[in-house]
Amino acid sequence: MISVEWPKDSAPSFETWKKIAASFEATLAAKDTALAEMRVELERMQKEVGAADADRSAARAGQQVAAIRAKAAEADLARARKALETADAAIAEYVRYLDGGQMRGSYDGKPERDGLRKAGYIVRAAIGPAP
User: pLDDT (tens digit, 9 = 90+) per residue, 21-77?
Assistant: First the structure.
């Protein structure tokens, strides 16, 4: 704040008023400059906040994609486990046939071989195409 003092019994002259007005204009110009700098800084900060929001949105989208991929991977893993169990059962049945153990009603081992072949198809389907 600018304060100008003069004696109480005398009125300021025209030159004094001009000096006071010039002082006020200089102060206003300085405050306008400071205000312009603050506006520039505010715009820069708003751009940074906007960029941070965009980054946060991209990170959220990435997390959602990762969660979807994780669920798909879990489903693939469950399918592969089931295929492995099926293949293991078919292999055990075929080994039992080869060892001369209890058979499922065929002397030539065809049901066992068919079960083994079917388990192989299931495993290939669960694993996916060969690279």
Answer: 899 999 999 999 999 999 999 999 999 999 999 999 999 999 999 999 999 999 988
Where are the chain's structural domains? 14-127
Find out whether 17 and 4 touch, Cβ atoms under 8 Å. no
Close Cβ partners of 3 (under 8 Å, ≥ 6 residues apart): none
Token pair listed for 125: 């389907």
Distance of CA 120 to the CA centre of its chain: 39
Q: For 43-59, how does the pLDDT look when each residue is reduced to its tens digit (9 = 90+)? A: 999 999 999 999 999 99
Contact 116, 94 (CB under 8 A): yes
Give the span between the Cα atoms of 94 and 114, in whole angstroms: 9
Where residue 121 falls among pLDDT bands split at 50, 70, 90? confident
Please say whether the beta carbons of 45 and 20 come within 8 A: no
Give the count of beta carbons closer than 10 Å to the beta carbon of residue 97: 22
Tokens 């002082």 sit on residue: 23
- Sorted by sequence, the CB contacts under 8 Å of residue 125 that are 6+ apart come out as 83
